[in-house]
Amino acid sequence: MNTDSTGWNVETAAEVLLRAERTRTDRKPVTEDWPGLDVATAYRVQDALIARKVAAGEKIVGVKLGLTSQAKQQRMGISSPLTAWLTDAMVLEAGTPIPTGELIHPRVEPEIVFVLGERLEGPGVTAATAMAAVGSVFAGLEVIDSRFTDFRFTLPDVLADNASSARFVIGGVERSPADLDLALEECVLRVDGTVVDSATGAAVQGHPAQALALAANALAERGLALEAGWIVLTGGMTDAVPVESSTQIAAEFTHLGTVNVTGA
Ligand code: OOG
Ligand code: MG
To answer: I want to staple 164 with a disulfide (CB 3.0 to 4.6 A). Which of 60, 97, 146, 244 is the partner?
Structure first.
């Protein structure tokens, strides 16, 4: 294990971030302690962190994309899309309240979700070949919960932190990809009944299939592929909204139904 003069390495960073998650304690960006943390090393931290979760019994159920829309990129001040891991422990069944007491400072964002019918392996995946691997499309809400104070981080920090992942909910309406124009699929986001934002699928890299292709090609650079049956969250369409106990959030999609969550 390479440890530089700061004393940090991939395993210590993974351990520190997992402890922050477990103890619900936010911290300063890892790059302030470990300026040498670059993007490639940060993905290794992410992998090490997930390996620890898998060793503790969690199962990988898919991947998420992050920072695929301008709304998200501008809010977080980072313009590169990224990938991170989803595990079964992050699944929030529809109707289950968001356990805000188990989280640091959760925010919720609406996403278009794919479930893969076939394995998808880059490089060279296009939006069209990506879409051909999609089995079904759902609406979703992702609950993000950065382990960094005030969601303030650089790209290597957020990568190491598994892209702020915490929970996600998948809507009850399943659609075939052929039945929808996902660039035009709209989501209206309500907080406590008031519309706070809206966006179409075009906000996500022009089309969510473009985001899926991006994930397949990016994973291929690390020798990885997307497996059949995996869930893919294609990235927040709008800015995320904070959730506190009793906050009611509804994402109303044109054809993918409405996803409701309430803070507990
Ligand atoms: C990073 C995670 C971004 C998305 O959908 O863009 C993300 C963050 O905003 O904390 O999940
Ligand atoms: Mg997200």
So the answer is: 146
